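hey m, so remember when u said the tokens were messed up on ur end? i reran from scratch. heres the input so u can diff it against urs
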Amino acid sequence: MYNTGKTTYQYGVHMNWDPITKPAEIAEKRLLEAIIEGAFPIGSHLPGERDLAAQLGVTRPTLREALQRLARDGWLDIQQGKSTRVRDYWREGSLAILAGLAQDATHSPPKFVADLLEIRTLVVPASVRQAIQNSPAEIEALLKGSPALEDTATAFTRFDWCLQLRCTQLATNPIFRLLFNSFEQIYTLMGEIYFSSDVCRRHSDAYYRALQDCLGDPQAAETLTRRILAESQDLWNDLHGGSS
């Protein structure tokens, strides 16, 4: 054991400290929100270093660190002797851009959720098929827990996320995992809205039961999942009055 003068700790014990928020992380988050919201639109140039640092309330070295992070992820173009430019991230971006957009649904473009659901409809059916091909017993064990689900939006959201994420982890294609690993936050926000509807909960409950009947036929599981996700996308649009 050792004493810091305030608290005594024992070697080997993991302490659950809250992470220390760094100024560069705050600056990065604020700049990212400004880019996504259109305060700094694609093709525009950021203010000079001195002005931007003052606006953010950080030092210039801290600002440079934040800018370098955003440039690394594909949001900004930094060239010596030129103003920092917001890149056309929809055309030039990568998975890092997708992850950044998914981290905060409140600042994402209006059509982003609809586009994300479309991608899910393309990716998840194949991951379900591969997961059942590779580990049918594990998928069966997961699905057996669905009848005991508490009939709440939170319970269904968590179960649905765990099932789809686990399928991507068990799938043969590792790209599925990369696509899903960063989506938990936006998925949780969407799920709480989607599963607040009794119709949506019953729809997914029927899917979990039907999927158990497809464990011996991976192709049938893929076909079922594709249909269910397409129907889920329609239900989501209905919740928003047909808007994206």
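this time it looks ok to me. DSSP finds twelve helices and four strands in the chain. if urs says something different then somethings off w ur setup not the seq
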